[in-house]
Design brief:
heterotrimer; A alpha+beta (299); B mainly alpha (221); C mainly alpha (210); A: 299 residues; alpha+beta; 3-methyladenine DNA Glycosylase II, Chain A, domain 3; Alpha-Beta Plaits; 3 domains; 11 helices; 8 strands; elongated; C: 210 residues; mainly alpha; 0% strand
Chain lengths: 299, 221, 210
Amino acid sequence: MNIVSAVILCTIVGAVGAIILVAAAKFMAVEEDPRIEEVSACLAGANCGGCGYAGCADYAKAVVLDGVPCDKCAPGGPKAAAAIAKIMGGEASAVEKKAVVQCQGSSEHCKPAYDYKGIQTCAAAAALYGGPKTCSFACIGLGDCTKVCKFDAIHIVDGVAKVDKDKCTGCGACANICPKQVIMIDAAGPRKPVVMCSNKDKGAVANKLCTTSCIACGMCERTCKFDAIHVVDGVARVDYDKCKGCGMCAQKCPKHIILFPLKDDPNPPKPVVKPAAPAAAPAAKPEAKAEAKPETKAE
Amino acid sequence: MAQENKSKVSILTNGIIKENPVLRLVLGTCSILAVTTAVSSALGMGAAFTFVLVCSNIMISLLRKVIPGKVHLPCYIVIIAGFVTIVQMFMQAYMESLYNALGVFLPLIVVNCIILGRAEMFACKNNVVDSALDGVGMGLGYTLTATLMASIREILGSGTWLGFQIIPESVAKMSIMTQAPGAFFCYGILMAGCIWLEGKLDARIERKSCCDLDNLKKEAE
Amino acid sequence: MLVKLAAIFFSMILVNNYVLVKFYGICPFLGVSKKLDSAVGMSGAVIFVMFMATAVTFPIQIFILDPAGLSYLQTIVFILVIAVLVQFIEIFLKKYVVALYNSLGVYLPLITTNCCVLAVTILVVGDYGADVAAHGFGYAYIEALICAIGAGCGFMLAMVMFSGVRKRVEACDPPAPFKGLPITLIAAAITSLSFMGFGGIVENLFNVTL
C-alpha cells in the first residue's frame, strides 16, 4: 500500500507541476520578435559589454526594439554590422573604431604632484585631488584600462596609456573605465586628426602643468576653413562631421599636440614652405591635401 | 566524437587529476566545506556521493535517447533525487551516526553541481560503460580531495585522525580549523597549492565558480 | 510571540548565517559577489524564491507527506516543487512584472539547483514541524516564513559585505598561486571569522531560547 501511495503521490506532483508549467507557458507567453534571435546569431557572442549593453542578447534586443545603430559590436566588426544591417533592412558604416588616449603626459612632459602610495588603481588615485600628476586632467597611468582590455591593446608606457591600434577593436571598455575620461573611441578613421590633450586650463597655467598641453590659444579654430575644430571649455576638440582631414590645424598648432594617432606616422604632414605672397595660401591647401592623400593611399 | 578514442583508464583518472571537480572545476563547494570536519564524515559523504553519481550516470546514459530535450533538466533531477532518497534511507537504517553527522547535506547531494554537471556534460552524450567509469572517477576525485582536506582539518583542529589520537591531548589545538573559517582557509590553501603545482607542470587553468557572472550572461542568450 | 519571531529572524541573519556559517549557497557567493549590483540582484532573487518555496513546501509536508507516512519522499517532492515553482515564477515575472524580471530574471535559473533554497525548505520543516502539534499550523507557518526571509536576508548581508571585501582584495597583489579564487576564499575565511563573534548574541539579546 505504501509503495502504491508513494508512486501515486510522485505522479500527481509531477503531473500537476507539468500542467501548471504548460499552461503558464501558453497563457503567459511573451511575444518576442524573431529578429532578435537572428541579430543575436550575427554577434560575436563574447558578452564583452563593449557595445555598452549587458551582453549580446541585450544588444540584440536594443537593435531590434530600440533602433540602436548596428555597428556597436566591436569583436564582430564590420562583418557583424553588415549582417545585422541586412536583417534590419538598413545600411551599416564600414569604418573601424579604435581607441585613442587623448593625453601625452608622460614623465618627461608632466611631473608628479605628489608621491602616491595608495591603492594602485586609477579609480583610487583619481579620488585624491584628481590624480598624482600636476595636470589634474591627465591620464593617471596606473593601468585600469590595461586590466579591463580583453584584447591586450592598451598598455602604460612611461606613465601614460598608449593604444596598440592594430589590436584595438574599439569596444570601448577602456573608455568606460577611465576615471579621467581621456580615452576617445575614434570612429572617424585614420585620416582625421585628434587633439592629444584633455587639459581644460588655459595659457600659462596649462603650460606650467604639462609641456604638451592644449593652451586653448584658438590657433586651430582660426586656421580651420571648415569650422571643424573649436576650443570648447578650455580644450580644442574636432567636429568629425565637418572635418575634412586636411591637417592644417595640426600644422598650425604651436604646441604640436594635434596628431594623426591612427596613422603609422602620427605627425602632421610637413607644412609647405610658402612665400609671403597671398597667392600661395590657396596653393598650400591643395598641397597639404595632396600630401595627406598619398599618405593615406600608402597605408 | 573525441570521447570514443579515450581509453577507459583515462576516463577514470580524468576525474581524479585532470578534471578534479573540487580543486580544478570548483564544483560542489558547499558540501566540501561542510563535511570535512572529520575524516569519517568525509569518507562517508564521498561514498554516498560516488554511489549516487555512478547510479545516476548509468541511468541517465541508458535513458539519454528517450528523454526529450526540453524537459531534460527536471528529468535528471528526479532521477538523481530517487537515488539520493535510497542512500538516505540506507544510511538512516544502518549508519545512524554517519547520517546524523552529515545532516542536511545528504539530501543536498541532489543539487550538487557535480552530479548535475556530469549528467549534462558526459552522461547524456556517452554510453553506459563510459558514464559509469566517469562517475567512479569523479567520485574518487571528490572523495580523495575531501579526505585530504578533512585530514588536515581534523589533525590540526582536534588532533585526531579517524578517531585515533595523533597529536597528544596536552598540546593545544587549532580548533578554528574545524569551524567555519578553517574550512574556507583550508580550501583556499589547497587550491593555491594545486595552482602552484600546476604552474610547475605547465597545466594552469582559470578557475571560476559555476555561478560566475560571465556564465550567467552566456546563459541569458 | 513577536519577540520570538524577531529572535528567529536575527538569528538566521547573524548566528546561523547561511553562507558564512552553514555553507549553503557557496557557489553563487563566490561567483556573483564580484560586483555590488549583481550581489544585490542575486540576494533579492534568493530572498524571493526562499520565501515562495517555504510557503509552498511547508504545507505540503504538514498536510500531505506526514499524514500519509511518506516523509521519506521529502527530497524528491521538494526539489520537484522548487523546480516547477522557480520556472513558474520566471514565466510569471516575464509577463506581468517586467521590471522585476529584468533585474532578477537572469539569476532565477541559477537558484533552482542551488543548495540554499532546498536547505531552507528542509531545515524549516525540521525546526518548526513539531510546533504544528504544539501551537497550531498558523503559528508554525509564520515562524517558518520568517525563518526563510531571515535566511535570505542573511545571504544578502554576506553577499553585500563580501562584494566590498572582494573589491579591495582584487586591487592587491597576492603571490601568483593565490591570484583569483584562492585569495577570495581566504578573504571569505576572515569574513566568516568576524561572524563567529555573533555566537549567542541573539538568545541573550532577546532573552529567549531558540
